[in-house]
Amino acid sequence: MAKVSVYNIEGKEVGSMDLNDAIFGVEVNEHLVHMAVVNQLANNRQGTQKAKTRAEVRGGGRKPWRQKGTGHARQGSTRSPQWTGGGVVFAPTPRDYSFKMNKKEKRAALKSALSSVVADNKFIVIDEMNFGEAKTKEFKKILDNLEVNKALVVLEDGNVNAELSARNLSKVKTAKTNTINVYDVMKYNTVIATKAAVANIEEVYA
Q: Which domain holds residue 71?
């Protein structure tokens, strides 16, 4: 089993914790990780881009000049693509970019991402992160104590004050154990999780 140190909010090591190898110690499948990231980004695309083709642009019904004898190239419409105000060749139309991954692939991709973070020593376990009230300054102080700048913070359910405290930090994102995803795990330099959150992850994904 992989063993990681456990820190308190002051950044001091207060113990260690064994991680479940079935989640945090699997062989990294780079293809599935890449596929999961592309899947999430594709599913987030609106796909609403649109431009008009020559058939959709208004006007241009009359032939601009006769076929022969003018010295100009022959033209059939002022809405052809080569004209200013004409239609767009192969114009983009609204489409759906999303595609599906099955549950086993998604789960394997997440395990690979978490294992990669642990292998790179970018996974920090903190004993608890409780706030009496929402205070961004206090949350920032914890990150400074851990010497972390950009992080994904995984919290146990119901830790509302910690979520609110991190809301105004642009380089920090909070997630619950059931909302973590491959894209966020790979995007942020460090993953910070409370002991309770790690236990929940091992319970859900084992």
A: 50-93
Over residues 56-112, the pLDDT tens digits come to 999 988 999 999 999 999 999 999 999 999 999 999 999 999 999 999 999 999 999
DSSP secondary structure string, 49-78?
-----TTTSS---S-SS-SSSSSSPP-S-T
176 sits in which H/E element = strand 172-176
Whether residue 195 sits in one domain with residue 148: yes
Instruction: Tell me the whole-structure pTM to 2 decimals.
Output: 0.82
Residue type, 72: H
25-55 b/e with 16+ CB inside 10 Å = b?
Answer: eeeebeebbebbbebbeeeeeeeeeeeeebe
Q: At which residue do the structure tokens 């394997």 appear?
A: 108
15 shares its domain with 113: yes
